[in-house]
Amino acid sequence: MPNSLPMGENSTSGSSAETSKKTAIQTVHEKLRERVISGELAPGERLHVDKLRQEFGVSTSTMREAISRLLIDTLVSSEQQRGFRVAPLSLKDFRDITDTRKLIEAEALRISLANRDEAWEADLVSAYHRLSRIEERLIGQDKAEFANDWDEWNANFHDCLVQNCDNAWLKRFRRTLHQHSYRYHRRLVRDHSLRRDVREEHKGIFDAAIDGDVETCVARIEAHIEKSYTDLIEQHDLSD
Q1: Structural domains of the chain in order of their starting residue, each with its CATH number
Q2: Model-level pTM greater than 0.90?
Q3: Using one digit for the tens of pLDDT, what is the confidence trace for 118-152?
């Protein structure tokens, strides 16, 4: 009778392999998602499964599962018998994202401000200070090389505003909307066409938040989001 691994060892080996595959899928999914969101993979671009699996050094099934997760994220579309493409950009889509963002952001902000504490205030002051320094270089001194840093600290400032929102579903929806909105917003930052001076907008939002003026803060956030929409459609053709 041939030797065989004890049941425990065989089970452990199988479990380890399954965990490794799940980790690989997650890693590939996250990297592909970042490429789509950043614009490295252009809207409408076809995703070649075989080419991508070779690049990432994974199996075809792993790559297909990772891309399938992008379908759930609605960052990729599937074509009958023709594979996958990066989801296109459109004026209607950006309008819908903008309107929904205003609803979600407003509610998350109201809850966060209702739960404000000293730690929240300290984090917000720090985030605003960093953002202000970057904006002075990017906008005040017209140094476009700081665009990527501005992306990071702008997101951090807005995240700090709502960090005390204790509604996990709101924060999850907000994160998804931000990913989709960023695909559009990145076009402004990438070609350095961020023409408006957002420093005053951010200062107004910060001041209202620190003062605990909820409705003023919400109104300024909604106007801030809407202005990003009008900026983009004025500077880029997103005709459906």
Answers
A1: 7-86 (1.10.10.10), 91-235 (1.20.120.530)
A2: no
A3: 999 999 999 999 999 988 887 766 666 667 788 88
